[in-house]
Amino acid sequence: MLVEDMLGDLGCDIVESAASAAQAEQVARTAQIDFALLDVNLDGETSFAAADVLRGRQIPFAFVTGYGEQGVRPDLRDVPVLSKPIDPRQLAGVIEAVERT
């Protein structure tokens, strides 16, 4: 919820949120979104399948993790990684970078 509050403060509309990897993958397949923020660990599973779907749909995304870049699958390490706890300034920077592309 804290992340959703931060996103709202940055002017973002929250379209969907997911509590499991399966739900995140489904949202990634169907949601009409401009950007996604993926927690690497969703209830003991990774969000990498959702990341693959988003990449295939050419929807930009960033990861959130307490494990740093090493917690991200090697072929996805070109994606921005935000460390927990999220610094609102870093989050704003990632969103601004996505908007410029």
Structure description:
The protein is an alpha/beta fold and 101 residues long. It has a single domain (2-100), classed as Response regulator (Rossmann fold), CATH 3.40.50. The protein is built from 4 helices and 5 strands. The strands form 2 sheets. Strands 1-4-5 form a 3-stranded parallel β-sheet, sandwiched between helices. A two-stranded antiparallel ribbon has the order 2-3. It is globular and about 30 Å long.
Keywords:
Rossmann fold, 4 helices, 101 residues, 3-stranded parallel β-sheet, two-stranded antiparallel sheet
Show unreliable segments.
Answer: none
Shape summary: globular
Q: Per CATH, which architecture?
A: 3-Layer(aba) Sandwich
Element order: H for helix, E for strand: HHEEEHEEH
Helix/strand structural class: alpha/beta
Question: Radius of gyration in whole Å, from Cα?
Answer: 12 Å
CATH topology title? Rossmann fold
What's the CATH H-level homologous superfamily?
A: Response regulator
